[in-house]
């Protein structure tokens, strides 16, 4: 949802800004732009292509102070005129991530004041508002502060003025922004990956913060406009973790990182002999003991992780569990139960709908909150009482892979902890599950060896326009995740059904042009699933079955069976996810789509 970078230094900042944008491109890639202060003027370069094109267009641009932006369009089509930075009367330049909700009335007001609008964006009102206050003789900081008082909505902004080469002003409310601390140079960015080439020292700005940044230092004001000190953290992110290395795409790299990502996520637990609630936070034991149910809130892939967890939590821990898509829950009148554990799941920790759903739940009196998230210091983590950090490392590919499997690992831990606390997990069962968790990374590794066979299978999908994914029980959400992956990166229309529902409608769609993918683990529902598959075969459909080793499915005319190396019991959904990720990846390769940056999508959706 748009990436922002800004810098003030004693060297040309344009290469720093553009490299930062390249690393933030996963947040949006409809257009990109940069503006610098040079000799009392603003110089701006914008492009509707990728950041690589902006690199070419700005070879002659130089400056010691600048801001840059990569866009995911909300208001106004992707075009040069809508690309950021936006200027006001060649004096003020602004980059913005978020949505200004009252932009229409501000636009009317500013037009009446004589401001001319050159874009269709909501952002341009910010530039003109800042200008209107700056023109009255205010400092740039004061002009931005006055502007913020007039804005309704969410923003992270960076602002510079043509005649003030000494200051970069930034502010955040509802969208992430951090301040990078260098030696006599300072930076801002939407996330840390953008700044790794220049600094690892970072301040996570808090909700409502405004900062005035100069070469030698910075001042931060909180939402009450008091001058505040914020802690400087040293980021643990390494440069390699955000580089492609030997891989062709980040998605491929991230699929292959799953054994390590899951091992990292489980590290604390796998090194110990028993499970304790404390892995979710100091207050977890008391909170978990006082709950009657679990409510999981999430979006996209993260919501699929929640749906798997529902099966685990009800079956293993015996705790009633419901899962809701965050964007639905936040606007629905539901019946709050203060004895509900509200679990939010998010890779980024900044998805607007998930954050709003959490806040809505809290506003109804449900304050027992746990966030499962991949980004420390994210808004979701900070707004929850309990937290569990998945340690997947940065996920750059827009289609989520390793974040999902690590979320599942974390949710299985939650299930076991709840079960143990309720006396539903004896010592032997606990040890058995711990053993299975320790084995999980190598089990994932074994599944990854199916890659060549799946690459071959993918050739059969490339010319298809539709696909059905079937699963039952724990594997129904995995079928949903498989369908989502295929949609996202290969643009093939894919639907997932609980296999038992096939006969209630989707069977009408089945013919030789409709590949049907079935997730067929060796569990209690296998025989039922086999009958569902016969229903497909009898209608001439092509079946692609991901079956466990012991299922005795065999490839025959119209049925292509891919044998999984082992059956992982409750952890089977994690293993069954991998071939579906690989399938969508190879279908996308066949189709030649932009795997890491599929059209119209963005990695972190920080707007509604
Ligand atoms: C976007 C991404 C998805 C992701 C979803 C939720 O739509 O493209 O991959 O699953 O947001 O994101 P979160 O960061 O909250 O997990």
Automatic annotation (TrEMBL):
Pfam families per record: GATase_6, SIS
GO cellular component, one term: cytosol
Protein name (Swiss-Prot/TrEMBL): Glutamine--fructose-6-phosphate aminotransferase [isomerizing]
Classification via CDD domains: GFAT, SIS_GlmS_GlmD_1, SIS_GlmS_GlmD_2
EC number: 2.6.1.16
Gene: glmS
Localization annotation: Cytoplasm
PROSITE patterns: GATASE_TYPE_2 (PS51278), SIS (PS51464)
Species per Swiss-Prot/TrEMBL record: Ferriphaselus amnicola
């Amino acid at each position: 949802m748009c990436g922002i970078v800004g810098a003030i230094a004693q060297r040309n900042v344009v290469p720093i800004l553009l490299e930062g944008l390249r690393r933030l491109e996963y947040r949006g890639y409809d257009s990109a732009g940069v503006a610098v202060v040079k000799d009392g003027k603003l110089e701006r370069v914008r492009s509707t292509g990728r950041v690589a094109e902006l690199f070419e267009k700005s070879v002659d641009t130089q400056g010691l102070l600048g801001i840059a932006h990569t866009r995911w369009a909300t208001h106004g089509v992707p075009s040069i005129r809508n690309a950021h930075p936006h200027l006001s009367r060649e004096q003020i330049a602004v980059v913005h991530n978020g949505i200004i909700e009252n932009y229409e009335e501000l636009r009317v007001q500013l037009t009446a004041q004589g401001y001319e609008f050159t874009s269709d964006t909501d952002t341009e009102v910010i530039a003109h508002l800042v200008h209107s206050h700056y023109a009255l003789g205010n400092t740039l900081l004061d002009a931005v502060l006055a502007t913020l008082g007039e804005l309704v909505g969410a923003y992270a902004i960076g602002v510079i003025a043509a005649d003030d080469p000494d200051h970069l002003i930034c502010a955040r409310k509802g969208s992430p922004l951090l301040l990078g601390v260098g030696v006599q140079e300072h930076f801002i960015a939407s996330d840390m990956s953008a700044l790794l080439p220049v600094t690892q020292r970072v301040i996570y700005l808090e909700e409502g913060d405004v900062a005035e940044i100069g070469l030698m230092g910075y001042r931060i004001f909180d939402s009450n406009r008091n001058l505040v000190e914020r802690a400087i953290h040293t980021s643990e992110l390494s440069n390699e973790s955000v580089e492609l290395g030997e891989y062709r795409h980040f998605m491929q790299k991230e699929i292959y990182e799953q054994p390590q990502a899951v091992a990292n996520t489980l590290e604390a637990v796998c090194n110990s002999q028993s499970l304790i609630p404390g892995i979710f936070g100091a207050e977890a034991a008391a909170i978990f003991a006082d709950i009657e149910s679990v409510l999981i809130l999430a979006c996209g892939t993260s919501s699929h992780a929640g749906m798997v967890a529902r099966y685990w939590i009800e079956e293993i821990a015996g705790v009633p569990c419901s899962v809701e898509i965050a964007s639905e829950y936040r606007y629905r009148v539901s019946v709050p139960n203060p004895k509900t554990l509200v679990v939010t799941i998010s890779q980024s920790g900044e998805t607007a709908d998930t954050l709003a759903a959490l806040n809505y739940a809290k506003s109804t009196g449900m304050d027992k909150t746990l966030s499962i998230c991949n980004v420390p210091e994210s808004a979701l983590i900070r707004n929850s009482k309990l937290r569990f950090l998945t340690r997947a490392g940065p996920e750059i590919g827009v289609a989520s892979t390793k974040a999902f499997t690590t979320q599942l690992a974390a949710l299985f831990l939650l299930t076991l902890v709840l079960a143990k606390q309720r006396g539903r997990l004896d010592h032997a069962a606990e040890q058995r599950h711990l053993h299975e968790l320790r084995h999980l990374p190598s089990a994932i590794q074994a599944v990854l060896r199916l890659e060549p066979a799946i690459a071959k299978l993918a050739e059969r999908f490339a010319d298809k326009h539709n696909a059905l994914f079937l699963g039952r029980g724990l594997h129904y959400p995995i079928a949903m995740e498989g369908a989502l992956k295929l949609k996202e990166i290969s643009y093939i229309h894919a639907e997932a059904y609980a296999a038992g529902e096939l006969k209630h409608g989707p069977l009408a769609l089945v013919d030789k042009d409709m590949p049907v993918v079935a997730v067929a683990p060796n569990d209690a529902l296998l025989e039922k699933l086999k009958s569902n598959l016969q229903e497909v075969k009898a209608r001439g459909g092509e079946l692609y079955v991901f079956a466990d080793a012991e299922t005795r499915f065999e490839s025959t005319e119209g049925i292509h069976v891919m044998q999984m190396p082992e059956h992982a019991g409750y952890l089977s959904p994690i293993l069954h996810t991998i071939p579906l990720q690989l399938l969508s990846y190879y279908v996308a390769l066949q189709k030649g789509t932009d795997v890491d940056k599929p059209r119209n999508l963005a990695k972190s959706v920080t707007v509604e």
